[in-house]
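With this grant's support, we have settled on a layout for protein records. An illustrative entry appears below exactly as we store it:
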Amino acid sequence: MEKYISSPSPPTESNSDGSPIPPLKLMSQRNHDGTTRRGIREVGRRGGKQSRYALCMVCDFFYPKLGGVEMHIWSLSQSLLQLGHKVVVVTHAYKDRSGVRYMTNGLKVYYLPMWIMHDGCSMPSFYTMFPLLRQILIRENIDIVHGHQASSAMIHQCLMHANVMGYRTVYTDHSLFAFNDLAGIHLNKVLKMTLTGVDAAIGVSHTCRENLVLRASLEPSVVSVIPNAVDCTKFRPDMPRRNAVAKRGKINIVVLCRLNYRKGIDLIAEVIPVICERHENVNFIVGGDGPKKLLLEEMIERYDLHDRVELLGSVPHRNVPSVLNRGHIFLNCSLTESFCIAILEAAACGLYVVSTSVGGIPEVLPETMITLSKSVSSNSVSLALEDGLSKVNSAKFSSALENNALIKNMYRWRSVAKRTVKVYDSIMNKPKPKMRIRLSNYLQIGKIFGIVGIMMVAVDVILLHIISWLQPEKDIEHARSFPALRYMKKNRAYYLADKRRKENRLLMQKQRQKRSFSSSPVS
């Protein structure tokens, strides 16, 4: 498979030699209950065989909510569409956003009618969503169900239902969880039961992988490490803006995150007054919203820093690059983090990063781009910021454009998608274990919880037979796939043609101005 990992190329519907891609071949796959479903296959592009899959991304967290998990699912789905795969997303409804929606490049999203319990997480419905999920999976001819984030209640249900129906399943973990608190203990137990039947798992960093293996008691061989990435065409240095800020003689420190306890807002509230007292030319720009915003407002009032600290509130994702380009240093004080896309976006915009050394953060950036605090304390973060300020003042770090080029080579969503496809290939080439073997695996969870897991799966199997009898698969209408590659190809051609028209118009205007200037009489 290594020969398929190459430099990115624009999406086309032809082979490298110019010959057209053969049409999709639909291959029947048999479930454990005797019913059949049809998967998508395609003859490969470079002489060998390469699969095209129908993928279902499942998570409670998706657009219009914005965050690291949401952007990961969105960017990965878009890159998989460019590689020729079919992708649908299943999430819960957001206020008036419900039903079926088509997004960029034909990404199909099912917003299911489910109750929201807390922080965008749906209320567990156990078996009531099984008929609806079965309809979606059969209707879209899904091959692989890919769940994201352990704190999403929806993925635990969907992965269990998909395993019972005989689908291949993959899970990606985005966060680190403890072993010694009440929430972590219960969540790890549920995750262990959910991942007992999963075919493969992915961690976004090596620290995340080790944490997942220990929490879910998984075999390390089934857990891969595939990092996040960043779109460097959107996150890039705005040199005129940066030069304008530099001329004022001020240094701006940017903080962009959710204002909650886990993001270390308590540390930031202690660090800001100390740095402002020591450096008169340093200002802070804080973007984001959350329960800890009141703490920052109280800190500004107490130390009279209204002209030194700017609170932006919630920042739309499209405006994040413009906010980052106002700063010189990006400050991250997270108490736990498996990867942190925010520091990647900041480095791509040319900012120097100062961060706490927690989780997988030391794996993300080279030492020339980041300074890590020695401990998670306000004194240690202040010392790290002092070091970062000295490097910015003396210009002892890579230039903004060099940082962007380096990040662009290290982290690309197309590369992430190709590595994820290799995981899909590995599980599709292995036979799915029989139901008897899968049920026996639940006994390894624990004497009591293992029996509970077996009972839940057994009820799920019975419910599947009842649903299949009430509504056979042949009675479910199959949805037509959106021609994503053809659409992207035409859209790219239109963009290039429009770009050429604008360039020609601009050139004609310059020639006309030049002729009018040369023909004007000299006074």
